[in-house]
Amino acid sequence: MSTRREFLAHAGGIGLGTLFLPHLSSLVRAAEADRFRHSDDVIFEPVRTDGLALISYFVGDKKSGTAAVIDPRRDVEVFLELAAKHKLKITHALETHIHADFVSGSRELADRTGTAKVYASVEGGATYGFPVEPLRHKMQIDLGNITLTVLHTPGHTPEHISYLAAEKTAKDKPWGLFTGDFLFVDAVGRPDLLGTENTEWLAKILFQTIQKGYAGLPDAVPIFPAHGAGSPCGSNIAERDSTLGLERAKNPALQFKDEAKFIDWLLFSQPPVPYYWPRMKKINAAGPEVLKGLPKVEWYSPKGFKGLVEKGDVQLIDNRQMLAYAGGHIPGALNIGPKADLSMWAGWMLDPDRPIALVLGKEGDLPEVLRWFIRVGYTTFAGVLRGGMDAWIQEGLPLDTIPTMTVHQVRKTFPTKDMQLLDVRLPVEWDMGHLPGAKYIFLPELAKKLDRLDKNKPVVVYCASGYRSSIATGILKQHGFTVYNVPGSYKAWTAAGYPVEKPKVAGRGTDTERS
Prior knowledge:
By secondary structure, this protein is an alpha/beta fold.
């Protein structure tokens, strides 16, 4: 019996979800009734960053007029607005660890406020290329009537720390545990971000920290992780209110008593590591450039924009909805559409050293699109097309198109020897079910694996919704393939009740080879 099967048998024995333990419902009621809460003098506001599934936290004390931000994103205006709203002064920009999935906003926050200092862990030998206030295990941070106690919780990274929040008048009833990327709802942080040579020992440290890191803390304390559902910082992260007691009872990672079985299960389940994460690590350790706001971008007339693109040293990104892109776009444009997921897919797909030329759906979209880019370190922009594609078309400039196929047409067409059906989703998505007869290439690896496709046969591409497959069609088009996108993709296919295939055995999450 494999280690993975042993775990599944173990999980089946103790149950999952709301059935995880027979006494879970009573535990939930007890936790809610007994939940440790802060007083009205405490200001507490989570700030979610979609696309990255990042959750930052604004914590303030009315009496002292001070506030801290835990794990701030790079576009810090939201925190400045919260400080103004509550009439508080931000004095602390607090990091739980050196982040890999986004550019930290701590330095930006310190610069923009003039009052905040950056606080970061120096446990595990962590060093920084910019001034930080060093934090170590058991140190306390004073925010008026709020005390944040530092807890060293290594495993995801060597320096990782958590913050235990309590009011000085109720030190025995902490009202929040900020767990960073160590503990999530239903998951724990991945230990494989510092290279294969460090993965095994970090996984062992993670197991030890799970056993001892929060020993003695009450079950009723609410946990506030740095990421929710959709983040690849852990496997199968859920997003809901939770407490330390609920995680102790039902988080799959916290049920293991055997280190070897835990490590095998943990490493088997992790999704692929995004290519841009090592770059984020380096930026955050060295010290992100202080932008002082959003980058300035020049607007170009259609003919001026055409000249800019023809120079060949820019990355042309069409930010419109996939059907608009399919209907007509500038030749050579890559479609990364108008949603916060742009942050992650720009990170996966684009070269950080080449300037970006933008085509927008509406000119007013620019500030939000720039926020999505700067969160993952893209700050150099060649220009934006003034008037959008309407202006481009009216000037009689060249257009390219991407034909589409509905899921119903795909159903009628395949199987066929005349076309190829391509799935570009995550490996775990393929394992959970895919269209019959499809080939698999993980989207970020598509350009490297074009030799697996027959250039003489059209390629019909799908993902979960059509967003990622639209990116894929642009890549294939650039390399001379005839392509079709499938709007709605897998979601539409299953909604129509069409059959899916599943592999007999699921593959390792980080292994992108599937058949």
